């Protein structure tokens, strides 16, 4: 057993980071883990012209924001102290508040606030550093698979 495996929160962080790094669309969108803790994750997605949804304004497509928030929610579940080994999205509701400012990265922060035997509930927000107001807000339910 590794020294870090004795600390459940460190184990959760390692699992959640591996979860993010293993997702191909996360890599394709340039997502990176900024912070991760017990049932909480912060992930950044850089501005990329390939993700523009409106060529006239340069605003990132809502689908990319949705993928960021979904991935961040899954990472928060994986970082939960209950020790999940896998998760998948059951339901995700996203409210888009405004278009993200072109040229700036988007940060998503998710919190896994309640866990049952098989389902985890998450709230998430997407913002841009140094700017007031939300880009989007989300709530979702994720499957929760634990080690046997």
Automatic annotation (TrEMBL):
It comes from the Bacteria. One of its GO terms (molecular function) is 1,4-dihydroxy-2-naphthoyl-CoA thioesterase activity. SUPFAM superfamilies: Thioesterase/thiol ester dehydrase-isomerase. Coiled coil: none annotated. The keyword Hydrolase applies. NCBIfam families: unchar_dom_1 (TIGR00369). This is Thioesterase domain-containing protein. It comes from Roseisalinus antarcticus. The lineage of its organism: Bacteria, Pseudomonadati, Pseudomonadota, Alphaproteobacteria, Rhodobacterales.
């Amino acid at each position: 057993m590794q020294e870090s495996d004795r600390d459940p929160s460190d184990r959760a962080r390692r699992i959640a980071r591996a979860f993010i790094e293993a997702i191909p669309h996360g890599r394709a969108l340039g997502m990176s883990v900024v912070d991760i803790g017990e049932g909480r994750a912060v992930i950044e997605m850089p501005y990329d012209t390939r993700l523009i949804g409106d060529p006239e304004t340069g605003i990132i497509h809502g689908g990319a924001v949705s993928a960021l928030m979904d991935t961040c929610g899954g990472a928060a579940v994986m970082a939960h102290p209950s020790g999940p080994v896998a998760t998948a999205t059951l339901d995700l509701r996203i409210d888009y508040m405004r278009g993200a400012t072109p040229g700036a990265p988007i940060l998503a922060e998710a919190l896994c606030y309640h866990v049952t035997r098989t389902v985890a509930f998450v709230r998430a927000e997407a913002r841009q550093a140094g700017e007031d107001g939300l880009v989007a807000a989300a709530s979702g339910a994720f499957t929760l698979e634990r080690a046997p």
